[in-house]
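Same chain as my last thread, 154 residues:
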Amino acid sequence: MELKTQKRLAADLLKCSAKRIVFDNERLDEIKEAITKRDINNLIRDKAINKKQSKGVSRARANKIKKQKSKGRMKGPGSRKGEHTARLPGKKKWINKVRLQREVIKELKDKKRITNDVHKMLYRKVGGGFFRSKSHLNIYIKENELLVSKNGKR
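reply #2:
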């Protein structure tokens, strides 16, 4: 029984490939008689002609990996691609570092632990990239005795 035409018409109506069209075996005589799109459409409505669900790519493995990464696993050097700056751009790293250091010197100034002159000098050094980190900034302040003691003197 040749049903190529019916398959093609059904594929057009269901907007899929002819490979995905399935006919009901008990109603093949009805389907064979259907020669117009209207006839095929009626058979689709009556569930004599159906379309197979398309096969997709399973997300099960991807979801499992995502769940593990959310826990902080599978993020070692073997899983990384690209440069170190690809994960956190150099500019963003710089911004975070400078903001942290400026926050530290602002706190010291607000608590009156450093004078305005010292604050200005440190602020400029921070902006110029003089300090590598917060701890480097703290070491510099201690070594140069820039903190104001409790009695108001350096």
